[in-house]
């Protein structure tokens, strides 16, 4: 069993993907070719944003989002400590300070109730993450941000395809940044990402930042990066986009089924279910970039799953304030108790749209045996 099965997806799509790739090989415009422009139009329409700018990775999308807002050394960007390293890493790369705010214990996303007290005169942006495939509470976040005149960037690396109150992730905030890393809900065959905005000025700035800040031939009003998407990745994404809605529906079905199977599996055990299943808000749909549960004695459960040949992963065992790279922030144990507890307990199960019902049963039987073994 694979944790993410890209091979089965390719077998389904090989004709379409190969055809798209061949077109790129035929025209030979490998960087920012016609496929990139075509993808940008399709993705902007998909999420309901005015502009999409296809870029080299989710990390570079975050970096360019922060650069476009003019984040400077010593300024502060509010984010969550419970995320992939890139979220905090890109803030620090600009020598700005990540200001962590603890998470909601059920959704693992930044807790809007704690947000306002973290705002200072140095706050330049708020960077919530839509973790595991579920959007953060953007109505509440946007309202606080608007009150203080601070822009919001959605880190939508894990949530492309998800909806919040009927609107798509990446269409909810002033800026959104997503990732097309191969294992993401919409993934290419290398690195890729995208920025989204409704703002014409930001759109132009992103396009400049993507090519070293170039505004005209050999004319660079600002510093940028090499943040371009290559045409082969865009071609692959265009082929995959054709069936993306079906895959999103499959993810939703499989996620819900996993939770039912877990409830069933432990129903004959004489104790409250020791496994906490994902909580998806009624106004959200999740793309389950990760199907992540909480278990007691997590490391032992993971080892027991490995013994049973079930691949699992931990997203994330170390909250960002415990990373050595952020040691100078001086935030020890107890600084963000909800994130710290989650980091000790979470474990992600195999998840992709081609998981079979039988494979899900195998995973859940193994999970039950593993949890009961180590309790
Ligand atoms: C929450 C989050 N932010 C940012 C990134 C960075 O994306 P990429 O790997 O495309 O650079 C990831 C990807 O793993 C992520 O999960």
Properties at a glance:
11 helices, 375 residues, three-stranded parallel sheet, alpha/beta, binds pyridoxal-5'-phosphate, four-stranded mixed sheet
Helix content: 25-40%
**How are the strands of the biggest sheet laid out side by side?**
1-9-8-5
Kindly report how far apart the N and C termini lie.
25 Å
Bound molecules: pyridoxal-5'-phosphate
Mean pLDDT: 98
Q: List the secondary-structure elements in sequence, H or E.
A: HHEHEHEEHEEEEEHHHEEHHEH
* Alpha plus pi helix count: 11
Unreliably modeled segments: none
Tell me what you see in this structure.
The protein is α/β, with parallel strands linked by helices. Helix content is 39%, strand content 12%. Helix 2 crosses helix 7 (231-241) and helix 3 runs parallel beside helix 4. The longest helix has 22 residues, at 6-27. The protein is globular. The two termini are 25 Å apart. Bound molecules: pyridoxal-5'-phosphate. The site of pyridoxal-5'-phosphate (PLP) has 15 residues, from helix 3 and helix 4.
What is shown here, in short?
The protein is 39% helix and 12% strand. With 375 residues, it is α/β, with parallel strands linked by helices.
List the helices and strands and how they pair.
Layout: H1 6-27, H2 34-47, E1 51-55, H3 58-68, E2 76-79, H4 85-93, E3 97-100, E4 123-127, H5 138-148, E5 153-155, E6 163-164, E7 167-168, E8 175-179, E9 193-197, H6 200-209, H7 231-241, H8 244-265, E10 284-285, E11 291-294, H9 298-307, H10 337-345, E12 346-349, H11 357-374
Parallel strand pairs: 2-3, 2-4, 5-8
Antiparallel strand pairs: 1-9, 6-7, 6-10, 8-9, 11-12
Helix pairs in contact: 1-7, 2-7, 3-4, 3-6, 8-11, 9-11
């Amino acid at each position: 069993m694979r944790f993410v099965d890209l091979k089965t997806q390719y077998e389904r799509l090989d004709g379409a993907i190969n055809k798209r790739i061949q077109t790129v090989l035929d025209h030979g415009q490998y960087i920012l070719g016609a496929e990139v422009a075509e993808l940008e139009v399709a993705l902007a329409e998909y999420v309901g944003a005015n502009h999409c700018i296809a870029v080299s990775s989710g990390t570079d999308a975050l970096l360019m989002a922060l650069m476009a807002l003019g984040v400077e050394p010593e300024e502060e960007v509010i984010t969550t400590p419970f995320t992939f390293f890139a979220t905090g890493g890109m803030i620090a790369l600009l020598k700005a300070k990540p200001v962590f705010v603890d998470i909601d214990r059920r959704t693992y996303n930044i807790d809007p109730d704690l947000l306002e007290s973290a705002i200072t005169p140095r706050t330049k942006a708020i960077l919530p993450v839509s973790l595991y495939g579920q959007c953060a509470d953007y109505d509440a976040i946007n309202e606080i941000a608007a009150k203080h005149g601070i822009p919001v960037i959605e880190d939508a690396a894990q949530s492309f395809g998800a909806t919040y109150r009927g609107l798509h992730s990446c269409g909810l905030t002033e800026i959104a940044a997503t990732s097309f890393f191969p294992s993401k809900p919409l993934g290419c065959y290398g690195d890729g990402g995208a920025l989204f905005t409704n703002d014409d000025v930001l759109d132009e700035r992103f396009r400049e930042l993507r090519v070293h800040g170039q505004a005209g031939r050999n004319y660079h009003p600002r510093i940028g990066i090499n943040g371009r998407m290559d045409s082969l990745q865009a071609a692959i994404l265009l082929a995959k986009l054709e069936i993306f809605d079906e895959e999103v529906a499959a993810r939703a079905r499989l996620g819900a089924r996993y939770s039912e199977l877990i409830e069933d599996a432990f129903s004959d055990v004489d104790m409250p279910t020791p496994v906490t299943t994902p909580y998806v808000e009624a106004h959200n749909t999740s793309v389950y970039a990760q199907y992540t549960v909480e278990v007691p004695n997590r490391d032992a459960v993971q080892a027991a799953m490995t013994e049973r040949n079930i691949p699992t992963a931990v997203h994330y065992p170390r909250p960002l304030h415990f990373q050595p790279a952020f040691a100078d922030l001086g935030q020890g144990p107890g600084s963000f108790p909800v994130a710290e507890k989650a980091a000790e307990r979470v474990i992600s199960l195999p998840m992709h749209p081609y998981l079979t019902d039988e494979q899900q049963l195998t995973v859940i039987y193994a999970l039950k045996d593993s949890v009961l073994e180590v309790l």
